Amino acid sequence: MAVKVPVGRHKALRGSGSGWLSVLFAFLLVAATSAEDAAPVASAKLTLANGDFTAGRLIDSDQPQMFRWQGDGFVSPFDFMQRDVVSIHFPSPAERPVPTGDYCFELAGGDVLFGKLVGLSEETAELEVPLFGRIQLARSSLRRIRRWGDGADLLYLGPNGLADWDLAAPASAWRDESGHLITDQHGAFIQKDFKLPAQAVIEFEISWTSKPDFILALGVEAGNLAIGGSQSFRFEVWQNHLVVMRETENKADVASVGRVEDGPGRMHMVAYLDQQRHRMFVASPAGNKLADLHVASGLNFNYPVIRLTNHRGNVRLERLRISRWNGDEPRELEADKARLHRADGSIVYGDLKSFDGSAAQFVIAGDDGETRVAAADVGSIVLSGEEISGPSVRAVLRDGTRLSGQLAGVQGGELLLTYPAIGVPLAIPVAELHSLLALDAQPSSTLWEGRSGQLKLTDAKLTGVLMPGKEAPGVSSLVWQPHASATASPLVPGTAGRIVYRQPPPPQPQVRAQPVRRVNNGLLPGMFNLLAPTNQPAQVMGSTKCALHLRAGDTVPCEVTAIDERGVTFKAETTDATFVPHDKIKAVELIRVNVPINVDKAKQERLLTLPRMQRNNPPTHLIRSFNGDFLRARIESMDEEFLTVEVRLESKQLQRSNIAAIIWLHEDELGDEAEATGQLSLAPSHVQALRSNGTRLTFQPQACDGKLLAGTSDVLGRCHVELADVDILLIGKQVNEAAAKLTYGLWRLQHAIDPKFVNADGVTARPLGTESDMVGKPAPDFTLELLDGTSFQLSRHKGKIVVLDFWATWCGPCIQAMPQVNEVAREFKDRDVELITVNLQETPDKIKSTLERLKLDLAVALDIDGVVAGRYAATSIPQTVIIDRDGNVARLYVGGDPDFADQLRTALQSVVGGEVPEDAE
Amino acid sequence: MRCRFAASCVLVLALALSISAGTLRAQLPNAQHGEIVPRDVRELYDKGLQYLAKTQAADGGWAGGQPGPGTTGLALMVLLASGEDPNFGLYSSHVRKALRSMISQQDATTGYLGNSMYHHGFGTLALAEAYGAVDDRDLWSGGQKAQGRSTGEALELAVRAAITSQKKNSFGAWRYTPDSTDADTSVSGSVLVGLLAARNAGIEVPDASIDKAIEFYKSVTSSSGQVAYAGGIGGFDESLARISIGTLVYAIARRKDLPQYKATLNHLSSRLETTQQQWPEYTRYYQAQALFQGDVDAWEKWNKLLVRQLKQTQKADGSFTSDYGPAVGTSMSLLALALNYKFLPIYER
């Protein structure tokens, strides 16, 4: 084995033949100094072979073949065996570093290093790699040496895991496997903006296990989600042919590049893409030209994205390599032979024998003897070698370096990777990692005691079991043991999530209730009967039991004995608690109703719409009688006989025996849904057990023995659940979110919608006047008597512009708007504009006295029966209609803004013909 | 008409109480703490009262917002309406300081109280309410004694200023400055109520003046009970404040016979649950009095909502915010509530 020369802080470690453990020990001494300045790593994502994942960070561990993982939301780390882990993706910096060095060394197994070549012998190659210093590796592992920075730069070598791609849709359809990306879903695609240069070489290997049908599109416009992108060059499967094609505005071409058969298969091709010249060559890896496509386009563009879409069967992207291309046509060559490509394109066949560092020359031993080529003339060198076996993990660094090997541990913020051809662990700072990909992930199948469930947090999904635990400062009593981890960890208190043991069955289809015969109870009969149920049942309200429903979603079977200003007093067999304050209650059911009452959606909406008039005095309760009538009120008290309520500021008494249920309409639920869900005053570490019998129990968990979870309920005091009975355990904030979606939780008051002119943002929504369907259509003709005794027929005024202003004396906004309309119409008097105000169904006396008060003198048409208003759909007034010279409706405005005069003036200017009347200012 | 010469606190208070009760019968001075005033109201009022007492400036006024005789007058009325004895009670020194502050800000020649006719109106009303109730024989001391006017003199002077201003006004009403030629129903409300209170207190106010002002209100009241802001300005948009002012001036001017009064009262009492979004404290101040004057049953219902809303909006220090500062906000909110005590003469029905 060669000798290592440590250079710089980061070092390649190597030992004697006695094994790497002794080296590791030596490394620990070195690494101790680097641990201090190891930057903390932001959340990365670890994915397990069973599809589970967790956000967090990789932390130090001296165990080989194991990742110690500090998951977000967990108190202590998990130890995941390497074989259970598929990938770890680290957050990418905004700008990825550019590799430095003279050469890009491509190694066996798809690894890549950047650096300088120091020396080369038949046995070893000595490289100077900025990250590791000087390292020596077995020469047989070198596959290709490529001049770096000569225009043939490697832009990408991947696929580097799913997280490396900009978009995988649907995300669940794709998975990482051994460094490959796989999908078997119809329509699934992945894409990435590779910033493809105008001229690029794209080499790819794609395989499948049954007859494939996919599209690989090269040069797709960023943001264009049309399958295949517009005008991209595409590889597609057409029946039994793999074709390459392109279609532009008026041209298209297609060429077959191979056949595909039923069953498994693979393709390995090199595409030379020149987007500027609208041309693409396709060649085999050996350089055999398979197709030459030239499809001109009127557009001159350079699209940066590559997208792979699966249509049928499955597709596996094994390798994708993108490099710059100088535009020279690829030559045919003997692909399986070692060779040297000169920068001028000529090829020297033969094995690379050595590198003469002093003369800066490569020595090639070919059939015709040795050839020496100056390093400056070399484009790339292809070496022959053997495949190496054994690497189980591939580390992809931010600068594009790829290295695979055995995981030896993580120390001082550095990953120790034993690369077979180097023999000693290389220390890779975790902060430099882009991803870690397992090459041989095999999920283990350990059997665990206890009930298995799936813990779902915002950034984690971990299958496992709940272990014994006890609440302590900073530590939740919920201790999770993922199946794939050797260790368990308590949750951080306040973490939101859920444990799913069993998906509850979907709700049963609701049975339509038989009509309930109403009995006049003698109390408020008018109010109750007005709110009778309609015959379109859509939603069952509540259960048929006497119970108390808490805002959090808990149901307490009980008998309610009284309600007072503090809350509800009850008696229950299941708990010693007897009182619950108002802010924790959502509903009470007082009598057993054999048939649930159905409420259709429209009725529910009506019951829950708060009129603007009551905005500052919202009802606090919705009371349902046993026969299905509803009353909105404010409950003052309830005893065994009466319910005392305030209805529209008046106190009323109702017989308690007539009341079936009461729903609390909390004022803090008013408003949008987001606000409403955030109002439950539960501590963030509460849990809610949704039991298989459908009931919920919300409490602060304090201890778990693996079978029972015990704690304290705000309302019921000490309580517990058996985990065997739990379908879902909601944790933290998710309790609130779930409560908002419960049957009673959906009964929340909503503000009536404000009219447009007082929008919430305070900005007047200015109508354009063209919103109405009538605009552009002939104005309905009419004849009406005017206030002065003459009559007005619209059709006789063709050639003039007629403004109709619909109004009434009782309409405040009309009285405000009419003087403005009159004023503006006057300004346009000389432009054939005529104003006719149309009064709705009022007596001439009333109209005259209003006009006198307003000191207005204008033409008033008397729409005594409202027929004309009906023809103009004037359901809201003021309504102002401009009719053009041809007798068509040009504008129609409903409601008068304070600046309506300006709007009308502008509209008239354009209807008149764009002329500004002289007196308009 | 009632006599307003204070002999002793007990006598004065008994007088006020007896009149509010409608018949002449003696009551104990501490009768205000009876069961008829709910605990919620007392707690709200006391907390606000303490805030005002604590924030009274050294000159007797209230700083911040809109300082001046009107603001001082409103706070003075809160002190008077509390039921605490104005001469010997908890807040007697605050009362006297406030009164001195108002009178010393009055123009000795014209009688104009402060920097706008709003101040003048509310100031006049407060003087009228204090007149007779506050023993002002030793209101001024030392050097001040020579220049200091009595409450009655100041009130009389203020009435004269209002009448002079009205005479110059073509609408027969008032606007922001004494010399304004146009008029609005908001400013006019404050001045007219001040004049009516002065008349009730025994100061001579010509009937013609009241009639002219009432004519103005009639001209801007619609048959549906809407009250416009001013002739030709703003039209009849719904303003519960102005509708309340209309109701109140018709009622105190003893013109409940007018159809306009019935219309405004009807409009108001059919919208008890509506809370005006703009200037809510100003609206409540008038709404309370208008409903109380016009429809006690409606007032009782409305009062329940008022108490609920004030409980929600009162700050920890007892104050209520408003666009015109906390002194005005607190005073107007408490005066809306003061109808529960019924101690101020202007609340007589």
Structure, described:
The complex is a heterodimer of chains A (921) and B (349). With 921 residues, chain A is mainly beta. Chain A contains nine helices and 69 strands. In chain A, the strands form eleven sheets. Chain A has a 21-stranded antiparallel β-sheet that branches. An eight-stranded antiparallel β-sheet of chain A has the order 9-8-7-6-10-31-26-27, with no helix packed on it. Among the domains of chain A are: 156-324, Jelly Rolls (Sandwich); 526-753, no CATH class; 783-920, 3-Layer(aba) Sandwich (Glutaredoxin). Chain B is mainly α. Helix content of chain B is 54%, strand content 0%. Chain B has 14 helices and no strands. The longest helix of chain B has 18 residues, at 151-168. Classes of the chains: A mainly beta (921), B mainly alpha (349). Chain A binds chain B through residues 613-617, 646, 648-650, 809-810, 812-813, 815-816, 819, 853-855, and chain B through 219, 222-224, 226, 232, 234-238, 271-275, 301-302, 304-305, 308-309.
Topology:
The complex is a heterodimer of chains A (921) and B (349).
Chain A: H1 20-35, E1 44-48, E2 53-59, E3 66-71, E4 78-81, E5 85-89, E6 103-107, E7 112-120, E8 124-129, E9 133-138, E10 142-147, E11 154-158, E12 167-169, E13 174-177, E14 180-183, E15 189-193, E16 199-208, E17 213-220, E18 233-238, E19 241-247, E20 252-259, E21 265-274, E22 279-283, E23 289-294, E24 305-312, E25 315-324, E26 339-342, E27 347-349, E28 351-356, E29 361-366, E30 369-374, E31 378-382, E32 393-397, E33 402-411, E34 414-418, E35 425-429, E36 433-438, E37 452-457, E38 460-467, E39 469-470, E40 479-482, E41 489-490, E42 497-500, H2 525-530, E43 539-540, E44 547-550, E45 555-557, E46 559-563, E47 567-571, E48 579-581, E49 585-589, E50 598-599, H3 601-607, E51 609-610, E52 621-625, E53 630-638, E54 642-647, E55 650-655, E56 659-664, H4 673-677, E57 687-691, E58 696-704, E59 708-713, E60 717-722, E61 726-731, H5 733-739, E62 750-751, E63 783-785, E64 791-793, E65 801-807, H6 812-827, E66 833-840, H7 844-854, E67 860-863, H8 867-871, E68 879-883, E69 889-894, H9 900-912
Parallel strand pairs in A: 51-62, 65-66, 66-67
Antiparallel strand pairs in A: 1-2, 1-5, 2-3, 2-38, 3-4, 5-36, 6-7, 6-10, 7-8, 8-9, 10-31, 11-25, 12-15, 13-14, 14-25, 15-24, 16-21, 16-25, 17-18, 17-24, 18-19, 19-20, 21-22, 22-23, 26-27, 26-31, 28-29, 29-30, 32-33, 32-36, 33-34, 34-35, 37-38, 37-42, 38-40, 39-58, 40-41, 42-61, 43-50, 44-45, ...
Chain B: H1 9-21, H2 39-55, H3 69-81, H4 92-104, H5 117-130, H6 144-147, H7 151-168, H8 185-200, H9 207-219, H10 240-252, H11 259-269, H12 280-294, H13 296-313, H14 326-337
Helix pairs in contact in B: 2-14, 3-4, 3-5, 3-14, 5-7, 5-8, 7-8, 8-9, 8-10, 10-11, 10-12, 12-13, 12-14
